[in-house]
Amino acid sequence: MSGVEIPFKISIPDVELELLRKKLDLVTFPDELQDAEWRYGVPLSDMKRLVARWKDGFDWRAVEKKLNNELPQFTRDIEVAGHGKLTIHYVHKKSTLETAIPLLFVHGWPGSFIEVEKILPSLVETSEDGSFPSFHVVTFSLPGYGFSEGARKPGFAAKQYAEVGNKLMLSLGYNEYVTQGGDLGRAITYKMAQVYGGKHVKAWHTNMPSSLGIPAPTLTSHPILYLQSLFKPLTPAEKAGIERSKWFDTEGKAYFWEQATQPQTLGYSMSDSPTGLLAWIYEKLVNWSDAYPWTDDEVLTWVSMYYFSQAGPAASARIYYEMWHELGTGFAGAVKNPPRIPMGASYFPKELNVSPRSWVRTVGNLVFESVHSSGGHFAAHEKPDELVEDLRNMFGRGKGKPGPAYGVVSGRNGFQPA
Amino acid sequence: MSSTEVPFKISVSDDQLDLLRKKLDLVTFPDELENAGWRYGAPLSDIKRLVARWKDGYEWRAEEAKLNEELPQFTRDIEVKGHGTLNIHYVHKKSEVENAIPLLFVHGWPGSFIEVRKILPLLVQASPNGKFPSFHVVAFSLPGYGFSEAPRKPGFAIEQHAEVGHKLMLALGYNEYVTQGGDWGSAITRKIALKYGGKYSKAWHTNMASGVRPTFTSHPISYLQYLVRPFTAEDKAGYERTMWFQQEGRGYFMEQSTQPQTLGYSLADSPVGLLAWIYEKLVNWTDGYPWTDDEVLTWISIYQFSRAGPAANTRIYFEYMHSKDAAPGALAAGMPTIPMGVSRFPKELAVLPKSWMSHTYNNIVFVGEHASGGHFAAHEKPELLVGDLRKMFGKKGPVYGVVTGKTGYVRSKRGAERAKL
């Protein structure tokens, strides 16, 4: 079912770095309309500056070293039904507390396993006075991303990604665990909650509760929620959320449609032009976050995860195709068969889809909610402290009042045994 | 308003050819799923083969020479309200028939002025025994395409493209003219018909006129008719084609109409990326058209070597989608009144029942229906398209003599009588 664990260190061959340099040396920039700014896409001045930095100044070897120091990485083979074995790359850091809660963090696009970087130290931290729980943290590179192998055959969709996540946790000795995910991680952990919930997954938390849009409760689907929503006026935050969602649908979702219908066509550009790849990703880093002050090196590190990925940058788009064609509405997290295990949601105002909170109740067994006044799509990267605090509150037992998911994992409540 | 005409020959610099070669030498291909076929996009084997040809075998200089020989080209400055002067590149070929009908051909994306190549000789041809009309043909590169300058400011939408086409015809001495267009050419010639129709544009023909679905409130009779009348086999096939395009084929449209600059970095920097982006459409949008590799590479080269670079051409999508023309109901609200002709091909991108065209198009006097052919009618089915134009504008046609003094035939006493000149 799963092979042996092999320690892993990121080490991109020199020849790859040289090829990148050669391509950047030949870069051809497009023109730009006057006063275009961000209206038509990434501004030319940003791109020129980032490419100049990438050519000269951005130190990939230093980034490699830092990541290898901070994130204990491994690979192991995982068998996926109908798809053979894939070599999966992952981070695994245990808390010093044996009874810490095993937590699987699942990234999305255009993120990567490095999104766990800022929350990892706090999650594994133990509290002297037992005021917050501790976690054992696992995060893997989705197949086709980072340093995991990509799927070789069509049909590798949510179910298969979920299978990888579950088998990885089992192989690490975590028969019961909880999950945290946003973006594709939200879709995958939702599937995990549906398929493995109860038996293995004991609770799930997401910072993207309404996915890319969820249906409103109707009189026939959720009569009580529906009636409640009739009497509850929308809050200013919910109204702003609707505007944000509208922006995303009308101006920000084209990447989704291309990736969900013609990912191979897109893949030629992504593979051949690091500059093209940079623009494709950077646009999201800025538009999807809440005025997060990206440094150029941060951006280039995120893009490098795609440029230097094991499967190449084209593979990462295919998950959109597979999920979209599998369900038709793939990402919406159809309300049929909602997972029953406890669900936690963190709301950030600049997420891509911000639905009224009453709608989120249709998604699952919502036991924990936390509303934030700032933050966007990349919660673990933009608001690590807030996200960790939410998880601590959901799973903890602050001041004698247990959180709504306290003790869900047998024998591992995140605290010293009494 | 428009300055003098300057003869033009395509002459891509050696530097550009050199840079292309360097980039192709460094090409990095993606992987591909097993048995992917065309499902996920352009297949790897096709793209590899095309790139190999592009590197070694494809002769741009020979293609350039052929184009320069076949298509008499020029440039001239055209002033566009609010956008200053743009240097416009165009083909202009007169028929030997003095009173040939002036016809403006407007291309779209990912086409170019070279789409006029196959129909040009047929259109200008003089008919022995006056069997069919002849045309003086003008085909310009849309601003941002081919060898025309690109707009510099935001807001250059369909109206502005229409202004260029119209002013060009006037500058060439064609006070009255007709138009033919597909893809963006259809929207642009529709705008020309709307803004300049009657006085200047006398009739228009398009190979892309789909109309919209009737609803009970928008078109009650049409709606009710379709409740009781079963769809024909053609209707059903057209519906499937339309659904395919809606569900699988519009990713490029979404990206180009919302984030064209982002896409532009890829298209400008990677010839292979550009090739794949366009090639996918050349195959998916045609009806089994047997593209040769060199044909494909010539179409892509017009983008690769375009005056404004490969990013500028995508902006028309953004400008259109953010203009009033794209608002719901806009098409039905303002319809041209001049006579209109349509040619219908089964593999166009939207193929809806014929009668639905009247929901957004007025005064349709000619409909040509064909059993094969796709989106690039002038390239795939030049004889059929020209056949339709000849029927529409010919002696027995519905708009014979629509352009004053220019029937398309050699003037004879009988001819003059017939045209009631």
TrEMBL record, chain A:
Gene3D superfamilies: alpha/beta hydrolase
Xref: PANTHER family: EPOXIDE HYDROLASE, EPOXIDE HYDROLASE 1-RELATED
One of the protein's GO biological processes: epoxide metabolic process
InterPro entries: AB_hydrolase_fold, Epox_hydrolase-like, Epoxide_hydro_N, Epoxide_hydrolase
Protein name: Epoxide hydrolase N-terminal domain-containing protein
SUPFAM superfamilies (alphabetical): alpha/beta-Hydrolases
Catalytic residues (UniProt): 183, 320, 377
The entry's keywords: Aromatic hydrocarbons catabolism, Hydrolase
Pfam families membership: EHN
Domain Epoxide hydrolase N-terminal: 7-116
Molecular functions per Gene Ontology: epoxide hydrolase activity
Annotated family: Belongs to the peptidase S33 family.
TrEMBL record, chain B:
Organism for this UniProt entry: Tetrapyrgos nigripes
InterPro entries the UniProt entry points to: AB_hydrolase_fold, Epox_hydrolase-like, Epoxide_hydro_N, Epoxide_hydrolase
UniProt record similarity statement: Belongs to the peptidase S33 family.
Pfam families: EHN (PF06441)
Presence of keyword Hydrolase: yes
Residue span(s) of domain Epoxide hydrolase N-terminal: 7-116
Active-site residues from the entry: 183, 317, 375
Entry protein name: Epoxide hydrolase N-terminal domain-containing protein
GO molecular function: epoxide hydrolase activity
Source species, domain of life: Eukaryota
SUPFAM superfamilies reported for this sequence: alpha/beta-Hydrolases
Gene Ontology BP term (one): epoxide metabolic process
Keywords, in A-Z order: Aromatic hydrocarbons catabolism, Hydrolase
